[in-house]
């Protein structure tokens, strides 16, 4: 599953 990777992208996006 790439759910963990997806969560990482979301976290990075919110970190902007």
What does this molecule look like?
With 16 residues, this protein is mostly helical. 75% of the residues lie in helices and 0% in strands. The longest helix is centred in the middle third of the chain and has 12 residues, at 3-14. It is rod-shaped, with a radius of gyration of 8 Å. The model has no long low-confidence stretch (mean pLDDT 92).
Note the gap between the termini: 25 Å
Summed up, the helix count is 1
Measured as a percent range, the helix fraction is over 70%
- SSE order in H/E notation? H
Number of strands: 0
| Strand proportion | under 5%
Main β-sheet: number of strands, strand sense, barrel status? Answer: none
Query: From the helix content, strand content and strand pairing, which structural class follows?
Result: mainly alpha
Rounded to an integer in angstroms, the radius of gyration calculated over CA atoms is 8 Å
């Amino acid at each position: 599953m790439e759910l963990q990777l997806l969560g990482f992208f979301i976290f990075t996006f919110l970190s902007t």
